[in-house]
Design a protein that fits this description.
By secondary structure, this protein is an alpha/beta fold. It has helices spanning 15-25, 50-56, 67-72, 88-97, 112-124, 140-150, 182-185, 190-205, 328-343, 358-377, and strands at 4-11, 35-43, 62-64, 78-81, 101-104, 130-132, 157-166, 208-217, 222-224, 230-232, 238-246, 254-262, 270-278, 281-286, 292-297, 305-309, 381-382. Helix 1 packs across helix 9 (328-343) and helix 8 (190-205) crosses helix 10 (358-377).
Length: 385
């Protein structure tokens, strides 16, 4: 029997809208998936973006600059929304209240109040399946790393370091965009932009963050606008969050958890990394070397890190042979496979092979709000749920 299709509308046709569309075009790479996404409607304030979608997807029947018209379309069952942060509350709430299923971009609201309003809409419409994007845990090496963690082979956690470093804003003459303005990006700055990628695995692991000491940096304070005038660059470029966490809520011991989100990271391109050190071993990975997983198994005596080359060993199987390399677009495809599998009613394949939940977005807002308070007061802030 052929898989059923789920009809999608896309609101926000920029980079991530095109990445989703690319995954739809490659859906045949997945094996035995219960659903097939079908793009039937697109929406953006810039109609110049419509032709690319229409030219590549014959299924598109609606093109509109008004998201309300897309939400009124009875053919649209689910929505992928990728818009600037200041629009999250309005459009996410409207999508959920219209009875549509939703995959939304992080941070799921420009601030904690906006996030709470979105979750209130979901509470009113519990039949809606809602998740947040975060693709990096779907790299095969991270899946193996998380399997090792979940199996308890690392022992009691001693220290965790996670981060996302890239250099997209290293050039001080790069024109300003919406991510550099508080009005559209929010006061979180790079935390709202990059933070969920860094927090996904720690949140899913169930580690309880007790407090945070945040060091936030606004490095490039002015950038040229479209006319070449120098204008204020208002948001935080880099953030270092020094947290104290518990492995479990009732654990008597805490461990240091360091989270870094950096848009200005000399020597980096676009590197997501995770390092976990425990009493019985360690594990570390960086997209800088996307095939390499490093594991340490410690049972006394000499210590030795082992390096493993990972191939296309994915959570959701594809026609691509396991010997071949895995990349960013593959992680996007895996994320969407996880979303639609869980939406279809299937049990998640693994604990760490699912998308960010609304409850986890709420945790990120609690953390980032405390981080802002910590930086302003120049002292440690207790997380207030």
């Amino acid at each position: 029997m052929s898989p059923k299709s789920t009809k999608f509308g896309i609101i926000g046709l920029g980079l991530m809208g095109r990445e989703f569309a690319g995954s739809v075009a490659r859906w045949c790479h997945l094996r035995n998936h219960p659903l097939i996404p079908k793009i039937v409607a697109v929406c953006d304030s810039n109609p110049a973006l419509f032709p690319w979608y229409v030219d590549h997807f014959a299924s598109v029947r609606q093109q509109t600059t008004d998201y309300r018209l897309l939400l009124e379309n009875p053919d649209v069952e689910a929505v992928f929304c990728a818009v600037p942060h200041h629009l999250h509350q309005e459009i996410y709430c409207a999508t959920i209240d219209a009875g549509k299923h939703l995959m939304g971009e992080k941070p799921f609201g420009i601030d904690r109040t906006a996030n709470e309003r979105i979750l209130e809409s979901l509470h009113r419409n519990p039949h809606c399946f809602v998740r947040c994007t975060s693709e990096f845990p779907f790299f095969p090496a991270v899946q193996r790393l998380c399997d090792t963690l979940q199996a308890g082979r690392l022992g009691r956690i001693i220290e965790v370091n996670a981060g996302f470093k890239h250099s997209s804003d290293l050039d001080p003459n790069k024109p300003i965009n919406w991510k550099r303005r508080i009005e559209t990006n929010g006061k979180y700055g790079c935390m709202g932009d990059l933070g969920m990628h860094v927090c996904h695995v720690p949140f899913r692991a169930g580690w309880q963050i007790e407090n945070v000491r945040a060091l936030l940096s606004n490095i490039v304070k002015e950038r040229p606008d479209s006319d070449g005038n120098r204008v204020p660059c208002e948001t935080w470029d880099n953030a270092v969050l020094l947290c104290e966490a518990r492995q479990e809520a009732d654990s008597p011991d805490t461990f240091p958890l360091t989270l870094k989100m950096q848009r200005i990271a000399p020597g980096e391109k676009n590197s997501w990394y995770l390092e976990i050190l425990g009493t019985r071993g360690g594990a570390r990975f960086s997209t800088k070397n996307p095939k390499r997983l490093e594991l340490l198994d410690y049972a006394g005596g000499e210590q030795s890190w082992q390096s493993f080359d990972m191939g296309h060993e994915t959570a959701y199987t594809t026609h691509t042979g396991a010997i071949f390399e895995f990349g960013f677009s593959d992680s996007i495809l895996q994320m969407w496979a996880a979303y639609l599998a869980e939406y279809s009613g299937e049990k998640p394949l693994k604990k760490f092979a699912t998308c960010v939940t609304p409850a986890e977005t709420a945790l990120s807002h609690i953390l980032f709000t405390a981080a802002l308070q910590s930086h302003q007061a120049k002292q440690t802030a207790i997380l207030n749920a």
